[in-house]
Design brief:
It is built from 2 helices and 8 strands; from the N terminus they run αββαββββββ. It is of the alpha+beta class. It has one domain: Beta Barrel (Sortase, Chain: A). The longest helix has 52 residues.
């Protein structure tokens, strides 16, 4: 009986230890990574604000799109969001590392270059947009896909963004609250771009790259449209599927002291 009791006690202690370790891992994933990511995001926004405060208004922050007249870029059919945990943390889904320049734009992967506002998710919702889709980039804000052809804020094509839904700052935790007609505002050093949500939530598989194309088959939009696509994992706490929202550019405003787009004045 003594040996049996000892075995039971040891087994119970092992199970308790395993349970505590699992609990600590969950706490780290869902809470501590949020603290780390929020600090990084705030630092990124501070750097942007400082940089923009010294930027001449006439100097663009995003390279002009290279689009042949009368031709719309082919849809991107590579796998969209959003997280590939098998590779290095500093390598995006397009295979390029953070710190490398993006072809077709004056930006560098892994660096913040814009900010996104989603009023539906709160009046204080402002997150940095980081170039690229690496795990490291997504842990500092909202990532921007750099699949060719490159599409920046306000440009012809599909400006595709990815954000975590749980942990790592979870900027898109409540993305499912968005409704058709809601506004999404993107801020650069010289301009404000206001997009209006056209459709969502649309649930699809991670391999469906058509959602990031210039004319997604799920939308009835003409060639030359200026779209935004927001992507995150679904269901919550899992990454089985992807939740997609699409919007179209409705307003472009130059940045001026004291000015904010109408969507941010509510």
């Amino acid at each position: 009986m003594g040996a049996v009791r000892k075995t039971i006690r040891v087994g119970a202690e092992l199970l308790l230890t395993i349970g505590l370790v699992g609990l600590l891992l969950c706490v780290h994933q869902l809470y501590w990574t949020n603290f780390e990511a929020e600090a990084k995001a705030n630092d990124a926004l501070s750097r942007l604000d400082k940089e923009w405060s010294h930027l001449p208004p006439e100097e663009p922050t995003v390279a002009a799109p290279v689009v042949t007249p009368g031709v719309t870029p082919e849809p991107n059919t590579e796998a969209p969001p959003y997280e590939d945990t098998s590779g290095p943390g500093d390598t995006g889904l397009d295979g390029h590392k953070d710190g490398t320049k993006v072809k077709g734009a004056d930006t560098v992967r892994g660096h913040e270059f814009a900010a996104i506002y989603i009023p539906r998710l709160g009046s204080g919702f402002r997150k940095p947009i980081v170039e690229g889709s690496s795990r490291d980039a997504l842990a500092r804000g909202v990532g921007h896909y750099t699949y060719p052809p490159y599409v920046g804020p306000g440009q012809v094509g599909n400006f595709g963004l990815a954000g975590h839904r749980n942990g790592h700052g979870e900027p898109f935790r409540y993305l499912n609250k968005l409704r058709v007609g809601d506004k999404v505002v993107v801020e650069t050093g010289t301009q404000w771009f206001t997009y209006t949500i056209l459709k969502g939530p649309y649930i699809t598989k991670p391999s469906n790259g058509e959602v990031l194309g210039s004319q997604p088959p799920q939308l009835d939009v003409p060639q030359g449209s200026r779209l935004i696509t927001l992507t995150t994992c679904d269901p919550e706490f899992k990454s089985t599927n992807r939740m997609i929202y699409w919007g179209t550019l409705t307003t472009t405003d130059p940045k001026q002291p004291g000015f904010k787009p109408a969507a941010l004045k509510r």
